[in-house]
């Protein structure tokens, strides 16, 4: 009969044995203590690194010195004193979803966990109240279909975390070396095109993470997305794990039906999309498979170099076959592989479906996509949108990776009234192609890494281009402030990354951008190519307008997309076309 001792019992027995040896005059042989508890896999991985002569990063040392979830009393004490955190604690508090963002703002930003971007009307309104009570009086929708509340004084650090949980929401693990918000198709359950409703799977993954401490403290952050093949994409191919809904045909050795195709290693900031593994996963096994992928990453991810600590680099070093074999070893069974011929072509996305009125699969009902200016909106607007969702919709709101919000379940008869109320808020259900695809990170007004004020410059670019270079086809213009690529500039038709631009020979610089073109996602996935360097911020609107004007004049026909146009020319050819444009 085997006996399983508790941790305290084991420690007692070890002490008893040591004492017995001492009393009998024998010198006890020291035993190599093995890490135990929920952090054991992380500590063992660190030990292997140091045993091999490697040097842990500061972040790995901080995790080991004190796990963030054991440090809540100190966070509460700092809040009581209204004291900002030192660097080690600034890292630890990100496990709770708090980021101290000085010197851009001498305050915290709180990032949430909202699986599949789905909120109830009362949660949406509740967040508006929190932004007013504890934050700066505004909210941001992020490119992970999430919400950030900014300008939170240190004294309100614990207040905001407790209040978020009072709303039935979480911020736990939304920062640092953890699995971030689980995204999914924003129109899940109402999309007439979808193959599967992603909400149950995103929610199951969300709760799996929340309730297992061993899934915190990874070598680096980790992104997971479920795409149900609906009209609005989840950008799953930019994630470490992308579950892509597909239909498998009959007579290919597996039961026909809907599966998730498994894609791994996406990180577009490092110029890589998630790559198809050749594996399909039954939807009800997706969380288990994701868990085992995470366990392999925990054991083998790089803990010595933060720049190389993402899943992509394990895959690059090992290859997919070795990595998947390690996952199978943890699963205790083989993964299901199938040839490309067995999988039906996925339906195309509609790049305009996140803005405006669109019919749902439920006859007589619609979702309304509301344009939020580069993802920013006020508490008053949030409360009013919540009321519109309650009064005219099904009571729910959905956030998208395009930094806007959808109101679902609006009947045909109530569309006009709902739209009128939205417009009365200073928001719109209609947007030009330029503004509908405009994406911007926080920028240097709220992030110390950013080299430019991306949200302000994005608005300036849109306002200028709408009048001087309007276009009639969907386009995505992404502005990101730094190499972290939070706004994913590499996948935009036009991408701008913040830079300090030289302005004289004395070394003075100004805000500006490097400009890229030809990026894409989903069916058009490709990393953008650099077109221009060191464009001053005040010159960026005119430069983008020249790019759009060159496209409009030189496209092969009215149906040629911008990405098709950009990829049809080499970079030198594009520069010549654009430099010939005059916006005078």
TrEMBL record:
Residues 176-334, 439-581 form the Nitrite/sulphite reductase 4Fe-4S domain. One of its GO terms (molecular function) is oxidoreductase activity. InterPro entries: Cbl_synth_CobG-like, NIR_SIR_4Fe-4S, NiRdtase/SiRdtase_haem-b_fer, Nit/Sulf_reduc_fer-like_dom_sf, NO2/SO3_Rdtase_4Fe4S_dom, NO2/SO3_Rdtase_4Fe4S_sf, NO2/SO3_Rdtase_FeS/sirohaem_BS. Residues 106-165, 358-424 form the Nitrite/Sulfite reductase ferredoxin-like domain. Pfam families: NIR_SIR, NIR_SIR_ferr. Keywords: 4Fe-4S, Heme, Iron, Iron-sulfur, Metal-binding, Oxidoreductase. It comes from the Bacteria. Belongs to the nitrite and sulfite reductase 4Fe-4S domain family. PANTHER family: FERREDOXIN--NITRITE REDUCTASE, CHLOROPLASTIC (PTHR32439). This is NirA family protein. It comes from Methylocystis rosea.
């Amino acid at each position: 009969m085997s006996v399983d001792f508790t941790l305290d019992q084991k420690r007692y027995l070890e002490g008893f044995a040591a004492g017995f040896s001492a009393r009998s005059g024998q010198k006890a042989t020291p035993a190599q203590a093995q890490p135990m508890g929920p952090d054991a896999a992380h500590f063992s991985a660190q030990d292997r690194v140091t045993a091999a002569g490697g040097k842990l990063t500061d972040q790995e040392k901080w995790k080991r010195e004190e796990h963030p979830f054991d440090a809540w009393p100190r966070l509460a004490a700092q809040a009581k004193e209204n004291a900002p955190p030192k660097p080690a604690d600034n890292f630890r508090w990100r496990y709770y979803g708090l980021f101290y963002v000085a010197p851009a703002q001498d305050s915290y930003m709180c990032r949430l966990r909202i699986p599949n971007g789905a909120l109830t009307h009362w949660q949406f309104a509740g967040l508006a109240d929190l932004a007013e009570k504890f934050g700066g009086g505004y909210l941001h929708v992020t490119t992970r279909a999430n919400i950030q509340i900014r300008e939170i004084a240190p004294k309100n650090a614990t207040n905001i975390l407790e209040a978020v949980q009072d709303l039935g929401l979480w911020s736990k693990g939304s920062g640092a070396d953890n699995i971030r918000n689980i995204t999914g198709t924003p129109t899940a359950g109402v999309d007439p095109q979808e193959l599967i409703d992603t909400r149950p799977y995103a929610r199951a993954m969300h709760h799996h993470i929340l309730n297992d401490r061993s899934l915190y403290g990874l070598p680096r952050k980790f992104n997971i997305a479920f795409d149900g093949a609906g009209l609005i994409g989840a950008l799953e191919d930019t994630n470490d794990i992308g579950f892509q809904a597909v239909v498998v045909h009959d007579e290919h050795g597996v039961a026909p039906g809907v599966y998730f195709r498994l894609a791994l290693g996406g990180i577009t900031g490092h110029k890589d999309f998630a790559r198809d593994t050749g594996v399909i996963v039954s939807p009800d096994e997706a969380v288990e498979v994701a868990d085992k992928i995470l366990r392999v990453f925990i054991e083998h991810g790089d803990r010595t170099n933060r720049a190389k600590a993402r899943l992509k680099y394990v895959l690059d070093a090992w290859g997919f076959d070795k990595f998947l074999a390690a996952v199978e070893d943890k699963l205790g069974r083989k993964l299901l592989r199938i040839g490309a011929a067995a999988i039906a072509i996925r339906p195309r996305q509609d790049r305009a479906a996140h803005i405006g009125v669109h019919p749902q699969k439920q006859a007589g009902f619609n979702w309304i996509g509301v344009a939020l200016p580069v993802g920013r909106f006020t508490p008053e607007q949030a409360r009013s949108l919540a009321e519109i969702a309650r009064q005219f919709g099904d009571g729910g709101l959905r956030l998208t990776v395009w930094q806007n919000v959808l109101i679902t379940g609006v009947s045909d008869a109530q569309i006009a009234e709902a739209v009128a109320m939205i417009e009365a808020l200073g928001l719109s259900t209609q947007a030009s192609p330029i503004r509908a695809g405009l994406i911007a990170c926080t920028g240097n007004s709220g992030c110390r890494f950013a080299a430019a004020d991306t949200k302000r410059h994005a608005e300036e670019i849109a306002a200028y281009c709408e009048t001087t270079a309007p276009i009639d086809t969907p386009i995505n213009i992404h502005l990101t402030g730094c190499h972290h690529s939070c706004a994913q500039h590499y996948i935009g038709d036009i991408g701008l990354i913040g830079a300090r631009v030289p302005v004289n020979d004395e070394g003075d610089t100004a805000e500006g951008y490097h400009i890229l073109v030809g990026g894409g996602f989903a069916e058009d996935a490709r990393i953008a190519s650099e077109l221009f360097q060191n464009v001053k911020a005040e010159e960026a609107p005119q430069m983008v307008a020249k790019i759009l004007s060159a496209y409009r004049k030189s496209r092969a026909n009215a149906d040629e997309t911008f990405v098709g146009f950009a990829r049809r020319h080499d970079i030198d050819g594009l520069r010549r076309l654009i430099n010939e444009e005059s916006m005078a």
